[in-house]
């Protein structure tokens, strides 16, 4: 993977294949938050790896030592001025989740740090998430006047209605990695990065040599009953798109960006 | 909230609004168990607060330092002589759960003590239950010849089939507050009353100032797929209504009331 | 229960009725794994006890001090040469699970040791599983080129999608009894055999004297929404049947049998 200066400034999504395993890595300087362009790239890379007959398993990871994924890009959220733009932006997350859902390969998520909003959605939509201590989770949407509508179905499917409600309602509260493991968001929680890497290496290697036909059938079984999500997540994107241009949401987003600008200036 | 002597003897349901938060409180001298009249009042107050545009969040609580809710009133259960009466009584619980389900506000339950039968249903039908140590739970229905049929859908939706089955089958066994928290019935379990009150205060205050539109959409998402419950819970009330007039149930209820009368006489 | 020498060599399924409780016991010398003949016998005994009006509760147990159930018989799996034979073999598990599902009595599983593959399915399809420390679980299907397709619906229904995915994907990894209890596969996990036996005795005795009508209704409620499983599990048996005759599966099964033969020879 070659990373250029431009990538470090604007973020990137890159894929690398090695021994039947494709690793998809994303990075964004604002805490691995995701602008529309990167969401489109992520969906594209997942579809591409899904179609590659020499690939049996996908590892989804992000770069750096900070957050795994900060969710939606606040800069882009704040720039949205119409419901249609809002719907389009949130459809970016819908497309990534639908790509993960329809991908005939098993997807392992490598969760090296915090997950917020859409980042929780990525962890939930993976078939098997392996995390390390410190990987806290939060669905902060309600605190900026919106809600976890697009990622909701993926999160609820994985951790159940109760845990999904808890995250959605108590939107300012971080739940720690052990909570996420107990609720089933993370399949494993490791004490160290090394231990997490070893486990990912072991499992991805085992799956790379497992029966391709069996994995295709397993994937279908896991996602049975979500056939309507292309439409459902689009409807959800419209709800978030409408809310994000409300006065309350505009106000909350402005406060966050102002605070960030002030912090930078100091 | 003004409470009269009559209320203390016969039980009451009262509402109070303060800063966009409506608190609904119920009380009954028999361990906060619920006769038909109070069930009707509870449903009414929930519908009323749901229609109040100045309310954003509802706190459901009971009075006293004993049980949060003892479930169905044993006196009324024992007085039922026909299936039709039975169905009507259990429809009272169905109406409360359906009112909570359709209410467009978020409902926080304040669980200060034990929950039995219908009381577990109230905790489950709330969107977010905050409890304190000592809040044990039990679905004792089978031990009196009936079953948790009306509250079943609400309980299973919140804690899953396995935990719901455990409670239903092992009907004489109390599960402690930590069990209820781990299974998702309680979102939070606090070591002290003070800590529970602080958390309710903090969360209700935050929600009172959150986006009304976002909360309405969240509530819809949480209860998606329960649109048939008006009918389902009525059918369930008919099942309980039929069982409660069986010889086995009559016998079990008589034993409980006799034991209570004897304890009072001593 | 009279057990003959032939039974010890070829395995057996036997039933015994005592005080409204039918105990169904199975045994097979290869770690209580299940050949087609025993699966048919198991289904038959469950249906028989379900139709017995003097029975209120069924205890499902296996003999010995080793595994509770090793899943499908490897000897039979290895002998399958056509998809049709494969589908027929796996339909044996489908029939047992469907018999448990449709049985109008509550089924308590006594899990005294490890559960593998189909053995996890039996524990999941019971209404209430009581286990002892050491009862580890594994869905090893993917490691022999197949998948937990027939038992999948029963396992997912009981422990949720996340835990089911974890077991299915990480197919070589044992999860301990505490994991199984936390995920809801086991209702209880006891430190000693004595404590497990006491609990089974207590609960089965209580249920034997509970309302038959209430239990019939409870059982219906627990299994609501599975009415299509006769067809679903047959479709799943066809998937496993197709995979088990693949080259990859044949190769994996041969390796296991060779290792077993070698171990025996030493």
TrEMBL record, chains A, B, C:
It holds the Pfam family ECH_1. Gene3D superfamilies: 2-enoyl-CoA Hydratase, Chain A, domain 1 (3.90.226.10). SUPFAM superfamilies: ClpP/crotonase. GO terms for molecular function: catalytic activity. InterPro entries: ClpP/crotonase-like_dom_sf, Enoyl-CoA_hydra/iso, Enoyl-CoA_Hydratase/Isomerase. PANTHER family: ENOYL-COA HYDRATASE, POLYKETIDE BIOSYNTHESIS ENOYL-COA HYDRATASE PKSH-RELATED. Belongs to the enoyl-CoA hydratase/isomerase family. This is Enoyl-CoA hydratase. It comes from Filimonas zeae.
């Amino acid at each position: 993977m070659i990373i250029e200066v431009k990538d470090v400034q604007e973020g990137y999504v890159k894929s690398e294949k090695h021994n039947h395993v494709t690793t998809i890595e994303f990075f964004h300087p604002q805490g691995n938050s995701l602008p529309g362009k990167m969401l489109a790239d992520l969906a594209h890379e997942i579809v591409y790896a899904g179609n590659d007959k020499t690939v049996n398993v996908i590892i989804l990871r992000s770069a750096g030592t900070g957050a795994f994924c900060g969710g939606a890009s606040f800069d882009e959220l704040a720039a949205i001025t119409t419901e249609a733009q809002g719907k389009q932006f949130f459809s970016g997350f819908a497309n990534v989740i639908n790509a993960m859902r329809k991908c005939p390969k098993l997807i392992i998520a490598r969760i090296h740090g915090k997950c917020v909003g859409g980042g929780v959605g990525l962890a939930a939509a993976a078939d098997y998430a392996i995390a390390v201590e410190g990987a806290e989770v939060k669905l902060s949407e309600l605190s900026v006047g919106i809600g976890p509508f697009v990622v909701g179905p993926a999160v609820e499917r994985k951790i159940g209605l109760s845990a999904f409600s808890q995250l959605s309602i108590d939107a300012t509260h971080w739940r720690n990695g052990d909570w996420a493991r107990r609720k089933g968001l993370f399949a494993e929680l490791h004490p160290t990065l090394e231990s997490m890497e070893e486990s990912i290496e072991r499992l991805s290697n085992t799956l790379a040599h497992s029966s391709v036909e069996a994995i295709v059938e397993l994937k279908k079984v896991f996602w049975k009953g979500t056939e309507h999500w292309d439409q459902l997540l689009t409807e959800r994107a419209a709800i978030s798109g409408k809310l994000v241009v409300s006065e309350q949401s505009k106000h909350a987003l402005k406060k966050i960006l102002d605070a960030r600008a002030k912090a930078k200036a100091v």
